[in-house]
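Quarterly update, task 2.4: iron/sulfur cluster-bound model.
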Amino acid sequence: MKTTTLPKPPRVGLVSLGCPKALVDSERIMTKLRSDGYDMSPDYAGADVVLVNTCGFLDSAKAESLEAIGEAIAENGRVVVTGCMGKEADVIRARFPGVLAVTGPQQYEEVVAAVHDAAPPVASPFTDLVPEAGLKLTPRHYSYLKISEGCNHRCAFCIIPQLRGDLASRRPDAILREAEKLVQAGTKELLVISQDTSAYGVDLKHATWSWHGRDVRAHMTDLVRELGSLGAWVRLHYVYPYPHVDSVIPLMAEGLLLPYLDIPFQHASPKVLKAMKRPANEAKVLQRLKDWRALVPDIAVRSSFVVGFPGETEEDFTYLLRWLEEAQLDRVGAFKFEPVHGAAATDMPDQVPDEVKQERYGRVMELSARISADKLAAKVGRTIDVLIDAVDGDTGGATGRSKADAPEIDGEVHLRDAGHLNAGDILSVKVEDADEHDLFGVPLQS
Ligand code: SF4
């Protein structure tokens, strides 16, 4: 019998650091490399070249990126660096003269070309097939959907606009095509991400494109309405608190969007917000939260806050605590201010000592844990929809998320008597118990 010996495809190792946006970049790069006939290597030893997708947002992220590059050099030796830290090619080359190539964020062609140079592809119809929806690094049942890149704001603590440039939105028809493919390939939840989701389409002057015979404006409201009609859960992240965010709340009431908003408020004290160059209308925000809850009582609001920003006094900080007590946000992430090279806040006077930052961080986390525990306790006895993330065949348990929980950053729902379920199932669950972060329950259907 004549057998065909397949050429061995070159293998690429990947270390992906940073935020979900960087993860989407990694997915795109790997999708392209897979379509060029590359295999992925799960370890350094089996890789012909290692790609390190770096994060350069904070100095601690840069340090982590440098460490990852060093490890890849030591373990494999053939390393291509990309991502946000690629903007600092000189720093990387000075420390690691042996890196094969350094490319910046979104330089997909350059990074793919660098991998081609380092480990030339072997053409083969058996190795260059790619799944319809591309190769994904998240589980099949949820997918990040990047709708734009860059940001037109200039928050004083942030260097994203320097790293990634001004807002550049994708065309709505291209986003919807990608989303439709993902849903057809099994995605049950689309996580809409960008640096500034509510600014979507500003750079395109909100022009209109045709999608399945309908006109769709490049505008957040129009885009998410169309995404909501695809049949998957749609979750909005990184929504800057513009007034027009109010217009997506009715879509949640209609069931087109998950009742979930991730809005980084960053602070509440008008003085600190002004210094941060953020909108300082915290009183209005409290009223808007009330209005949103009147329309969508189950809406879950997640936010992040920076404590210890330069000039933040104890009075500013207690203002924030009082505001949080009143706002009753469902999920709160806090960050201690970290000076970043190139950010305006780094050189501001009245830097807050580390021990004060730490103490304030502890107080915010304590308060938000208490609010979260109360809110979750109120769900005990209720029936909620849960999307299953993982099933444990040994214990007969499963872990999933409610509509109020984004993957990785929010809580989970732990289920008993659920060994028959599969990742990606969506089912009704009776909530039996709760703690500060998670819910516990049992499936209502088999
Ligand atoms: S809106 Fe976000 S990405 Fe844009 S400058 Fe502010 S913190 Fe940075």
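Highlight for this quarter: The longest strand covers residues 383-392.
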